[in-house]
Amino acid sequence: MPARRGRGKRKQQQxxxxxxxxxxxxxxxxxxxxxxxxxxxxxxxxxAGDDGSPRAAPGDDAAAGVDELxxxxxxxxxxxxxxxxxxxxxxxxxKLGKGGFGQVYVGRRISSPTHGxxxxxxxxxxxxxxxxxxxxxxxxxxxPYEWQVYNTLSGNHGVPRVHxxxxxxxxxxxxxxxxxxxxxxxxxxxxxxxxxxxxACIGIEAISILEKMHAKGYVHGDxxxxxxxxxxxxxxxxxxLFLVDLGLATKWKDAGTGKHVEYDQRxxxxxxxxxxxxxxxHLGRTGCRRDDLESLAYTLIFLLRGRLPWQGFQGxxxxxxxxxxxxxxxxxxxxxxxxxxxxxxxEYVVNLKFDEEPNYAKCIALFDGIVxxxxxxxxxxxxGAQKLVYQVGQKRGRLTAxxxxxxxxKKIRMGMPATQWISVYNxxxxxxxxxxxxxxxxxxxxxxxxxxxxxxxxxxxxxCSDLWALIMDAGTGFTAQVHELSHYFLHKEWxxxxxxxxxxxxxxxxxxxxxxxxxxxxxTPYAQQSYKVSDSFPFKWINKKWKEGFYVTALATxxxxxxxxMSRNAGFTHQVVELDFLYPSEGIHxxxxxxxxxxxxxxxxxxxxxxxxxxxxxxxxxxxxxLRTSAFPGQHVKEKWAxxxxxxxxxxxxxxx
Length: 657
Hints:
With about 650 residues, the chain is of the alpha+beta class. Helix content is about 25%, strand content about 30%. The protein has 3 domains: about 110 residues, Phosphorylase Kinase, domain 1; about 220 residues, Transferase(Phosphotransferase) domain 1 (Transferase(Phosphotransferase), domain 1), CATH 1.10.510; about 240 residues, no CATH class.
């Protein structure tokens, strides 16, 4: 089937200001109004300040507290005295720090020990007391979630011991080992610098700590310099490394089956600290082992170089900008001229798959080559890592396919960001399909009219360089169709008029200059429809509409703005979103394996979004393929037709070459 191409240059006109007011939804009994919100959807939820300070958990501002907590503690704990169960009595003293799930203070023992060693553990002269108020979000269902994690991990290699847990004066309190300064403190007190050997030792021991934590089924979820502490100064443990603050720890495997947790993405959920979080955490993906290692990589580079490339962003969309910068920063650029093992570690961890078991031993071996063969001469105790180091013997550093004796694997995040055509093909019975691309405004109507005369309706529309692309076919099931080319994104009044005539939006596209093409049809199964235009991808709104029985049925972008159309009675039983700053190949394959198929696509110059749905009625042939090309995929489309694969949707925007 021949390709059709529009010719001529698009007229550049200054569009009038867009209409104001709400975007509307239509239903047979009347109109439902959906308020149009043009603000930024906050991607920095639960985030930290750019100074790397701990993140505040959403809703945790009720944790009695913040900086006034010590006064409230003294008020509710009998003049600052704390006793949990049969523990010694402790006097509340200076604050050690705060996290998103509570604050930690020094507790000085004022009573004589009742049992055990007089100067260690719970009987030590000083202990750490961690307070969390009963009204905090983490205590909605009783004792803090962190307690459950410590029940499993307390005393694990690199995790401080918890000696007593209980409730007093409206607070949940843990009595823990007293530790020394954090790596942030050490770096900050050493003129914002740290030796290569020290950072390499931190890498070795931190990997060992994470390996043993992961072996227990947990990922930490907030790896950063502030959460790594040394042991108490001038003690045998002064050179040991500990990982604290388990409030964001989650399980990466099911305790009953031992299987990896299922993949998911919730772009409205962020857990961690913005500066050190993995890109997957920024994008709201289910936490797994690779995320801890990616955060560790950023921690090591920060300690080594004193700064990360994404520091300095501010404002509501800081999380968006930081994640974008992380994904655009190559390992070479991130690590600079530092020792190669740091770059090799970054390259390895950012390309781990969602459910892949990291090779901890070989990661340790990378840094073991920097610090030398004698563990006793190292600035940090690495005894916990020696077993893993032994597994690779004298072998040093390079994680290449040749040394691993493994088949080369597909890299998850390597490649250059690019703008490309993203096309989706579905298995269909033989049918007539036609495409047009590089269509100027004045050629749009003639192409549509000719297609209608031939029994074809538009199934997909997109834009590239302010020119249009149309997909028309005979398999839509539509009975009539209207369209509007508008300088608005979107023209609300026209859409409402068509809703009154029982037409529903079935496809739409926007151009970089802000204009749009909206296709509305009869013969759809839809019973009600709503749309939203937003300056950022409006996942919160989508999630709200899902709960009301709507599903996404069309997507479009104009410049950096998004338009999302959602309909009731769309023929789906479930729906998910894949949102990325590069092409989300791994997420798509995870969703395909779970029975989802791509049903809508759109992209800006920064992000790509794919909607994947489970159809109420499964097609006989569920085959679906995607293709990314720099030029419009005309020849590829013809090759797909020969295999009875037909274009389902197409867009132009963010991808990876």
